[in-house]
Design goal:
Helix content is about 10%, strand content about 45%. By secondary structure, the chain is mostly beta strands.
Length: about 475
């Protein structure tokens, strides 16, 4: 009876609801068995789905209607260069998919009509000599590219104008220490949407588009070797200004066991070591603390609204951990074991809203390998590791890798429910069971490290576009 009651409670939350999976489409790419490194997709209000990817020096465009029929499939030729996906926008009744030519840093823009047809490719040179991109941010109808020129101490902020289909630009003069800090870094774009993956929340360098004309860059571990407080760099496009703030001086040391995540008008922070787990939330405007939860190995983690889960994924049968030996979920009174597990890997806190006055937080740690090395442990040299979701920057300090043999990723986490206004814990009687996020479950159990995939809002659902070379088909599943 208890579990039935809990099931009714949690199925009222969209995040926990095991919604039905449906297949929308399955089609062959133009090229035979292309080795696709990454793809990206977006939709419009009519659920026209635009999909693009790069292969062998060309970009490919595919458009599907709401019945899953391919209405356009086109090869857009390049000159044999290497390209990386940088984001998508739907604006001015058109699709725009952005790629960067990493050989000459030209911005490549795929344009298509509202129906997904009439696709074409435009090329625009944005960078000056000895200038480097540090961020590309896209969210709904806005796309920004940020470039640093170290010698002139200038940050140039480009914004795509969908009407003219060109880039407007503004220049911001930086202080010396910011120039040195931003040199040779790359911020991972974070969209304020559901179903982000743990590896996205675990990266120490994040970029957000929080509101129209507002850009926020966050650096966890602002000092050397991944240690120190979190630095916030707020860019106002209209004013052409940059404001930097530092948080984390409030009486506790911060190191590479800490991460932050910005959601709406708040910034959440997790500190995870063997000795303590601390969750804090701050008002983004004034950095005043709103809420705090603190636990030691001797105090049950009473905000847990699920067991401490483990999700794991590998390829070619390679696992650093035997999943059968990690299948047993830990409960809130096993704080010592939970804190010990949270201390391995990169911690993360991932807030999401279910639209009912509640925030759903995923609290955990993420471990990944680079496909040929070993498991990331706190204290390793800073590195970028490859995952199906793209490259993930991990914090660095002297240390080592252990294990090896193939790509692998593992997340350990629990869920908690908070009041969206004051962030107090929303307790339920004996709330020890929860459902499983079907999208994460699909990615971990169905997709391998050899898949490439993209997540896209699709009406009131989420579309996963995925491709495995041995399958010879691009597939779209809806959740």
């Amino acid at each position: 009876m208890k579990k039935l009651t809990l099931w009714l409670v949690f199925t009222s939350l969209s995040f926990y609801l095991l919604s039905a999976q449906t297949s929308l489409a399955s089609f062959e790419p133009i090229a035979a068995k292309p080795k696709i490194a990454a793809l990206q997709s977006n939709t419009n209000a009519a659920n026209i789905l635009g999909i693009s990817y790069a292969f062998n020096g060309s970009l490919y465009w595919n458009a599907l209607n709401d019945s899953g029929e391919v209405v356009e499939k086109k090869k857009l030729r390049l000159d044999g260069t290497r390209v990386r996906p940088r984001g998508t926008v739907y604006a001015a009744n058109q699709f725009f998919h952005f790629y960067e030519n990493t050989d000459n840093h030209t911005m490549l823009v795929i344009e298509a009509s509202d129906s997904g047809r009439e696709s074409k490719l435009a090329k625009q040179q944005l960078l000056q000599k000895k200038e480097n991109f540090i961020a590309h941010l896209a969210d709904k109808n806005e796309f920004y590219a940020l470039a640093l020129h170290r010698k002139s101490k200038t940050l140039r902020v480009f914004r795509f104008n969908p009407t003219t289909q060109t880039f407007d630009v503004k220049e911001i003069l930086l202080k010396d220490y910011l120039v040195d800090k931003l040199h040779k870094v790359k911020f991972r774009p974070i969209a304020q949407v559901k179903n982000l993956m743990p590896h996205e929340a675990a990266t120490p360098l994040k970029g957000y588009l929080l509101a129209t004309d507002k850009i926020l860059l966050t650096i966890d571990g602002a000092k050397a070797r991944g240690q120190g407080p979190t630095e916030l760099l707020a860019i106002d496009w209209e004013a052409g200004t940059l404001e930097n703030r530092i948080m984390g001086e409030n009486g506790f040391a911060l190191d590479d066991h800490s991460k932050s995540f910005v959601f709406q008008d708040r910034i959440f922070r997790i500190i995870a070591t063997k000795e303590r787990l601390t969750l804090r939330a701050y008002n983004l405007n004034d950095l005043e603390k709103i809420q705090e939860f603190h636990y030691t190995p001797k105090t049950p983690i009473d905000i847990m609204d699920s067991p401490f889960h483990t999700e794991s994924s590998g390829n070619d049968g390679f696992y650093l951990f035997d999943p059968s030996r990690n299948a047993k979920d830990l409960e809130k009174d096993q704080a010592k074991k939970i804190l010990k597990k949270l201390a391995v890997g990169a911690p993360f806190v991932l807030p999401e809203s279910n639209g009912e006055g509640e925030l759903l937080l995923t609290v955990g740690t993420h471990i990944a390998t680079n496909g040929g090395g070993g498991m990331f442990m706190p204290g390793t040299p800073g590195t970028t590791i490859s995952t199906p979701g793209g490259p993930v920057a991990m914090p660095g300090s002297p240390g080592m890798f252990v294990g090896g043999g193939g790509s692998y990723r593992l997340s350990r986490f629990f869920y908690t429910r908070l009041n969206a206004t004051n962030l107090s814990h929303l307790s339920t009687d004996d709330s020890e069971e929860s459902g499983v996020n079907p999208i994460r479950q699909f990615i971990d159990e169905t997709l391998t490290a050899k898949h490439v995939y993209a997540l896209t809002p699709y009406g009131d659902k989420t579309a996963i576009v995925h491709y495995l070379r041995s399958d010879k088909r691009i597939k779209v599943d809806l959740f």
